[in-house]
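Quick one, tokens below. Sequence please?
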């Protein structure tokens, strides 16, 4: 498994001698053991490009949510804009701006298929893995770009209590508490609770209030039972409530190259309630491993959006969304160190979503209340075999079959605003089925010095679906998208393991891409582009020159374009760059630790530079954000059980656009976050 940060961390912690084939290798300190992804074979005979960041690195770099991993991982981009209603993720240029993520997202094995559930708090997380490239053979649904795995602590291996209070610019207040306790050798439990408030960074001048204020609370509980050395059973449940104003959008003047002040007349809130529960049963002996993951997720949200973004009362949209998702994933794999390794599994899912959307056209005196019911069922069977052909040379072949059946029940009415008179517009029931095989082939060579070389060919797939918003009947549905990912890479060690380097080249042939465009007063509509591609490379380096200093660099380059996309008779975007895809992502980070610094037990200094760009915001490639960089820093001082932190983000005050979009009424954008700073005190025992 490729991971520069992982091997650098093992060297720093003095664990460089650990068997590199072990799937327990994670980028963590020695007093932590992370529950790793189950879908890896015992000897890691299958290479894939993956970056891992540990709890210590998250704390050192003051990374508090997934969006702040942008550029920290090469070719990883989560644009920081708007509300939690839509949290797109792009890996190697592959992503989705609207509903139906192209990146799989899992927390302790629980799948999050709805992108509004992605932006979670990382304040008390053990580690995050980001797999780059299609992972459909083992994961299937919505993994055409990659996978994000988030892990929490296991109280049977990690016991601590932590209380933290922090305050920063923009009246940013954070309070957190967590406890991980082992009652006996067989039973442990964990609890965590957090609250976050921010007044907002941007002002809506018409309403004279913040356009992006936030209040969020989260609670989490985990129960772990190990009846004997072979079995581990655990139950995890998380409840999150978020309330925010999330739309600091303003008109963008192309000629003057500047944003107008934020000024619209109706408050635009977003509320979200998410309940996620996972029940996991794992069995291991010297020959096989068994894993059963049962997951349930409930989402309830409401969005109000002044979609004309002007002081005029033109139109306003209300959206309500409810989701119930139940899934079951059963995996069986070999657990010995033989030359042949195998994985086999089955997956099933029931997903039911209800959505209500009403756009009120005030100047035209009517609204369009619309309801959508979308039940979806799916199942899959998958297998992967790996064989060590000769010494360090191994080959892997995998195949997955997915079947999905989706249905939509649509009803729309038209209401006269002044009289309340109602007229039926249309209703229909539609269904569609999708079937797909996703193969994978990998060849890797691992030398006796743990230098690795690999090549892979992987099929990516994302099912089609129904637009909940459309103007014409032809826009009611969109087709599946497909890709072939071709990749070669290497992992190298230097200076007795004190320096590691990883590099890979990739080319993605992407067909029927599900692209998104915005219709004023309607919303985002998904359509299929004919043919696109994405190519680039990634380079990660970690250097540990002395015991107390760790340096890392991550760089990614992506060139993604439409090869064929004729949207209409007057709009041909063939040859244009894909929107929302940065050409470059760059991260430079250094951490210096002083042990026994006078009266203090430990002092940690961290400084990091992240940069990305150029980014085009729309298919026409007219408005763009050139490459920019922000500087972040943090100092942590520990005495006994108390740690004091002082941090700053965007210390250079870099002015940039975090997001832009185009409607027929013009171009709009959101500014990036300005200089922010804060402090916190935590007690850990």
């Amino acid at each position: 498994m490729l991971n520069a940060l992982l091997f650098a961390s093992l060297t720093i912690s003095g664990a460089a001698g650990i068997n590199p084939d072990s799937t327990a290798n994670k980028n963590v300190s020695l007093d932590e053991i992370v529950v790793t992804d189950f879908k890896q074979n015992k000897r890691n005979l299958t290479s894939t490009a993956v970056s891992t960041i540990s709890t210590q690195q998250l704390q050192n770099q003051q990374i508090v949510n997934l969006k702040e991993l942008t550029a920290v991982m090469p070719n990883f981009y989560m644009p920081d804009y708007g509300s939690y209603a839509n949290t797109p993720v792009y890996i190697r240029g592959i992503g989705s701006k609207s509903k139906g993520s192209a990146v799989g997202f899992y927390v302790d094995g629980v799948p999050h298929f709805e992108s509004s559930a992605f932006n979670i708090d990382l304040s008390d997380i053990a580690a995050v893995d980001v797999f780059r490239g299609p992972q459909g053979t083992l994961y299937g649904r919505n993994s055409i770009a990659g996978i994000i795995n988030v892990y929490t602590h296991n109280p049977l291996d990690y016991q601590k209590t932590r209380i933290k209070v922090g305050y920063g610019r923009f009246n940013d207040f954070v309070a957190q508490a967590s406890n991980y306790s082992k009652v006996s050798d067989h039973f442990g439990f964990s609890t965590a609770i957090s609250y976050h408030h921010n007044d907002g960074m941007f002002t809506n001048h018409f309403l004279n209030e913040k356009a992006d204020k936030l209040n969020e609370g989260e609670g989490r509980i985990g129960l772990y039972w190990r009846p004997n050395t072979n079995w581990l059973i655990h139950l995890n449940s998380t409840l999150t409530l978020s309330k925010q104003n999330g739309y600091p959008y303003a008109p963008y003047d192309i000629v003057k190259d500047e944003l107008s002040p934020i000024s619209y007349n109706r408050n635009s809130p977003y509320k979200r309630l998410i309940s996620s529960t996972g029940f996991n049963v794992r069995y291991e002996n010297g020959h096989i491993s068994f894993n059963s993951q049962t997951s349930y997720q409930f989402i309830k949200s409401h969005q109000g959006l002044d979609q004309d973004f002007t002081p005029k009362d033109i139109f306003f949209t209300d959206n309500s969304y409810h989701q119930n998702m139940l899934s079951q994933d059963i995996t069986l794999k070999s657990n010995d160190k033989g030359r042949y390794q195998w994985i086999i599994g089955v997956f099933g899912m029931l997903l039911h979503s209800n959505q209500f959307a009403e756009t009120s056209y005030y100047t035209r005196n009517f609204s369009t209340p619309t309801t959508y019911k979308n039940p979806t069922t799916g199942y899959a069977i998958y297998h992967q075999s790996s064989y060590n052909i000769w010494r360090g040379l191994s080959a892997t072949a995998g195949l997955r079959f997915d079947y999905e059946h989706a249905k939509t029940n649509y009803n729309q009415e038209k209401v006269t605003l002044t009289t309340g008179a109602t007229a039926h517009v249309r209703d229909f029931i539609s269904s569609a089925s999708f079937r797909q095989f996703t193969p994978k082939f990998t060849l890797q060579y691992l030398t006796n010095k743990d230098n690795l070389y690999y090549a892979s060919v992987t099929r990516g797939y994302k099912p089609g679906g129904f637009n909940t918003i459309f103007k014409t009947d032809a826009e009611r549905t969109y087709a599946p998208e497909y890709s072939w990912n071709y990749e070669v890479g290497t992992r190298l060690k230097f200076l007795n393991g004190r320096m590691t380097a990883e590099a890979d080249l990739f080319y993605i042939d992407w067909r029927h891409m599900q692209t998104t465009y915005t219709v004023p007063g309607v919303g985002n509509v998904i359509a299929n582009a004919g043919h696109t591609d994405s190519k680039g490379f990634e380079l990660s380096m970690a250097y540990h020159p002395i015991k107390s200093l760790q340096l890392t660099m991550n760089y990614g380059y992506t060139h993604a374009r439409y090869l064929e996309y004729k949207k209409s008779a007057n709009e041909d975007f063939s040859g244009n760059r894909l929107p929302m895809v940065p050409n470059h992502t760059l991260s430079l980070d250094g951490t210096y630790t002083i042990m026994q610094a006078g009266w203090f037990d430990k002092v940690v200094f961290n400084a990091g530079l992240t940069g990305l760009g150029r980014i085009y915001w729309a298919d026409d490639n007219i408005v763009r954000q050139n490459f920019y960089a922000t500087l972040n820093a943090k100092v942590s001082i520990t005495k006994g059980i108390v740690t004091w932190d002082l941090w700053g983000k965007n210390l250079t005050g870099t002015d940039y656009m975090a997001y832009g979009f185009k409607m027929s009424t013009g171009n709009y954008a959101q500014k990036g976050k300005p200089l922010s700073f804060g402090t916190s005190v935590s007690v850990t025992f």
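Residues 1-34 have pLDDT under 50 and may be disordered. Residues 4-12 form the longest helix (9 residues).
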